């Protein structure tokens, strides 16, 4: 009777695997925005403690949910002695694995833009850009110019002689302009994020800060950095969502380029 009951349980367990998979998938998907909100509030708490720090963020790329059901009779044996009989090992096992794959945001312009946004959120102006951000842009232009000139159509012999005299002067003026712009100009000029930086309107006054004992019970979302806590009340969840969309827009353009692709998996969080 016991064996029959166990086998019936195994059949029932394996029959509802798809239901468990559906529930796990929905539960995992519902954590995406909770993770984003938590990153935002933890960074804000960090900036209220020290406005000069650099923020941290990850970009969630993919997720996996796996449900494995195993059941059966592992062994069959004969027991001898005072109470002879048969021994049967019956087992039924279910394992659920939920996994998120993510990449850290380490692009210099993206990190600097995030710093500007978080400083504005706490009521402070952005810090000046380090000169190296503009230098990278100028150096990249110098690297791309020879390849662009090599693809130009050759001129006729008469025109070529004239151009041979003009090219050095033009190249010299361009190089002089690049040298002048090494410490000024727009970082990553022409990139979507560079064009976006000057037109971002950051909502302010939508969160509160204090100690852990100051957090009210009706707070919807809470973040902290050390002993510094920030929280959002129900009336300002819309502002939190608006601010989070700004952060997502910035991190979208700050993961990798085609010349420096991210690793195949990146950071991985697995919950069994």
Features:
8 helices; 272 residues; three-stranded antiparallel β-sheet; extended
SSE topology sketch:
Blueprint: H1 2-15, H2 17-29, H3 32-49, E1 58-79, E2 85-104, H4 108-121, H5 131-150, H6 157-180, H7 192-197, E3 208-210, E4 221-225, E5 228-232, H8 237-252, E6 267-271
Antiparallel strand pairs: 1-2, 2-6, 3-5, 4-5
Any overview of this molecule?
The model is unreliable at 155-167, 178-183 and 255-265 (pLDDT under 50). Helix content is 46%, strand content 22%. It is of the alpha+beta class and 272 residues long. The chain is built from eight helices and six strands. It has a domain at 130-186.
- Contiguous helical run count: 8
> CA-to-CA gap between the ends?
33 Å
The unreliable regions are: 155-167, 178-183, 255-265
Number of strands: 6
The SS-based structural class is: alpha+beta
- Output the radius of gyration: 30 Å
Mean pLDDT: 74
β-strand percent reads 15-25%
